[in-house]
Design brief:
Low-confidence stretches: none
Strand content: 25-35%
Number of helices: 5
CATH architecture: 2-Layer Sandwich
Number of strands: 6
Largest sheet: 6 strands, mixed
Number of domains: 1
Mean pLDDT: 93
Strand order of the largest sheet: 1-2-3-4-5-6
CATH class: Alpha Beta
Structural class: alpha/beta
């Protein structure tokens, strides 16, 4: 059973103690500021709950946040992986502008960080894969 541990207009963060992962749900129009603040909350709760898995759902995400892509790739992801080997499953946004921002983030990432990321286009497959690791 997922427990809501943080919510704002643009993001919801849940902890699933049975699966031992954070479930992050991005909501609506995102900005560079909302993306950066949201990812900071994810890292905070990941450490607080000592999770090694993140299920990052961008299906309801809209908007372009490509200016934050470099920060996510080169600042946030290295700090995420410094906390330990953490698997990050990213469900791609169907919104074209958000897809561009996600793709830009991934293209800027260092190889040692990208090997812990898996991309999906729908939730059930992402959940199933994450349960296998």
């Amino acid at each position: 059973m997922e427990q809501l541990i943080f919510a704002e207009n643009h993001i919801q963060v849940y902890y699933n103690p049975q699966e031992e992962w954070l479930y992050v749900k991005w909501l609506g129009l995102q900005t560079n500021t909302s993306v950066m603040a949201g990812f900071e909350k994810v890292l905070e709760y990941l450490k607080a709950h000592q999770c090694t898995k993140v299920l990052n759902n961008s299906l309801l995400m809209d908007g372009i946040w490509s200016a934050a892509a470099r920060w996510v790739a080169n600042n946030w992801f290295p700090r995420l992986h410094a906390a330990g080997p953490i698997w990050f499953v990213w469900i791609y946004a169907p919104d074209g502008l958000s897809q561009l921002s996600i793709t830009k983030t991934l293209s800027l990432m260092a190889p040692e960080n990208i090997k812990f990321i898996k991309i999906f286009h729908e939730l059930p497959s992402a959940q199933q894969w994450l349960r296998t690791i």
